[in-house]
Amino acid sequence: MGWLEGSSVLVTGGGSGVGRAVVVRFVAEGARVVVLDRSAERLAELAAEWGDSVRTVVGDVTRYEDHVRACACAEEAFGGLDTFVGNAGLWDFARSLTDTPAEILAAGFDELFAVNVKGYLLGAKAAVPLLRRSRGSIVLTLSNASFYPGPGGGPVYTAAKHAGLGLVRQLAYELAPDIRVNAVAPGPMATGLSGPKAMGLADTTIAREVPIDRIVTERSALGVAVRAEDGVGAYVLLAARESATTTGAVIDISTTGIPRRHTSSAAPAG
Ligand SMILES: NC(=O)c1ccc[n+]([C@@H]2O[C@H](COP(=O)([O-])OP(=O)(O)OC[C@H]3O[C@@H](n4cnc5c(N)ncnc54)[C@H](O)[C@@H]3O)[C@@H](O)[C@H]2O)c1
């Protein structure tokens, strides 16, 4: 019997990358999943592959009414909602404050925060009535950029992911004791992650632009490239009833928080 047997889950951004890996694993754990994503094409693939276990809703996480439609779909198809996974996100491709023209910075901020922060807030707002009924939980996708500055983000992305951490803590406080609110913080990996149109980053992906596997292998403690499916156990754990006393927690699954240890004689001093 799976950890999430019989539970009903809504995942945003489940058409690709981390969200897709969460959907696949949750289904394997016995859950039935509604996926809200803006890509009709990716959703059609998911629906074809997973049949009755997955329902799809084409929509935009920046629009409250789209979250409401996705929640209604969960209620109608699966009888309610046990877990809301807020995950859809954009990246700023580490564009710096200094090198980004002011008007692009301003428009990029509005677009990225609308997805990465407002999208989580509105999703939670729409899901709360159903989650109160099931005494369910919220799991948000954060990032190593929720904790550390560095080359993995520009100020817009890092600020948005820090804001996500604030949301987890404030909502854990506000929604207790009925609804638990937790998060998973992945690190860099090659996915379809794209950026704000206003910054000219809508049609590219992290996998295409950045040699992520090489960077992560060279710099992270474990020395291995990470795949989206590697960290999904953390989502399962937080969504499961086994975590009934866990709220306001973040599981940091990024391997880059701990730097690679130099073992050769060429190790730098200090
Ligand atoms: N890939 C990484 O290196 C990395 C590292 C740390 C954290 N994360 C986080 O993981 C989460 C998922 O990213 P990913 O890497 O899987 O990216 P991805 O692009 O592969 O998947 C994100 C999905 O979200 C959807 N989406 C984007 N904007 C949307 C919107 N406005 N409305 C509805 N759907 C929308 C996309 O269509 C896509 O299917 C994000 O929150 C991201 O910040 C990613």
Word description of this protein:
The structure is a single chain. By secondary structure, the protein is α/β, with parallel strands linked by helices. It has a single domain, classed as Rossmann fold (3-Layer(aba) Sandwich), CATH 3.40.50. Strands 3-2-1-4-5-6-7 form a seven-stranded parallel β-sheet, with helices on both faces. Helix 5 links the parallel strand 5 and strand 6. Helix 1 crosses helix 8, helix 3 runs parallel beside helix 4 and helix 4 runs parallel beside helix 5. The protein is globular and about 50 Å long. This is 3-(Cis-5,6-dihydroxycyclohexa-1, 3-dien-1-yl)propanoate dehydrogenase.
Layout of secondary structure:
Blueprint: E1 8-12, H1 17-28, E2 32-37, H2 40-50, E3 54-58, H3 64-78, E4 83-86, H4 102-134, E5 137-141, H5 155-175, E6 180-185, H6 206-209, H7 212-219, H8 232-239, E7 250-252
What is the name of the CATH architecture?
3-Layer(aba) Sandwich
**Continuous helix count:** 8
Question: How would you classify the helix and strand content by structural class?
Answer: alpha/beta
What is the succession of H and E elements? Answer: EHEHEHEHEHEHHHE
Count of separate structural domains? 1
Ligands, ions, cofactors: nicotinamide-adenine-dinucleotide
User: What distance lies between the first and last C-alpha atoms, to the nearest angstrom?
Assistant: 50 Å
Question: Under the CATH scheme, which class?
Answer: Alpha Beta
Mean pLDDT over the full residue set: 95
Q: Strand-residue fraction? A: 5-15%
Instruction: Find the CATH topology.
Output: Rossmann fold
The H-level CATH homologous superfamily, spelled out, is: NAD(P)-binding Rossmann-like Domain
In the sheet with the most strands, the strands line up as 3-2-1-4-5-6-7
Rg is: 18 Å
